Amino acid sequence: MGERTHNLLMDKWGLSDKEIEDLCYMLPEAPELGSMSLCSNGFGSRAVIALSEVLPVKAPHLHTLILSYNDIHKNGCVALRDMLMGRFELRSLSLDHNQIGDEGLAYLSEAFTHTPHLHSLDLRSNGLTDSSSHLLAARLPYCVSLTKCRLDDNMLSPAGVQRLVEAKKRCVSLTTLSIDRQRERSISRAHETARLARGYLKKLYMNVVPVLLAC
What we know:
- The chain is an alpha/beta fold.
- Helix content is about 45%, strand content about 10%.
- The protein has seven helices and seven strands; from the N terminus they run βαβαβαβαβαβαβα.
- The protein has a seven-stranded parallel sheet, covered by helices on one side.
- One of its GO terms (molecular function) is GTPase activator activity.
């Protein structure tokens, strides 16, 4: 593959968990591989587990891993945590638009004190709530190399956002903390559906009952 740093771009290929596992099995040793992008495929945590086992061995100098717009949950974060806690010099990790949630972030953040090379972390649109803001406020200051963290389009309250703003002041190298467009969790879809159903039944009762009584 030559002496230069190479990139592997496989965005929007529709790759499943099984296909990513097969890719990991067939991937040759690629010490010059610098960036891997697997956006918008739809695979889940099984694929991430396979990648986390293979990449440190076959692509030890990988510095950028982009896994945006997939279906990665907490189990995938466990695998990524273990990968980051090993001797893997990843500098940029993008997990935006997945489903890691608060529990997934809790696992991932356990690696923050073991990532001396991580500069950029993208966690936009992952269903993170104030539970994650408490966790990040406590752990981000220990991620000493992190310069950019994106948390837009999650579910943090104004208090959660302020908590992170205050935590940024204790971060040695963090220059960019993006936390725009938060959607507070106010009413669940089930509750909203029930509310609409009650309104419909009330309207039906008010319109039908007078007709029946008049008969």
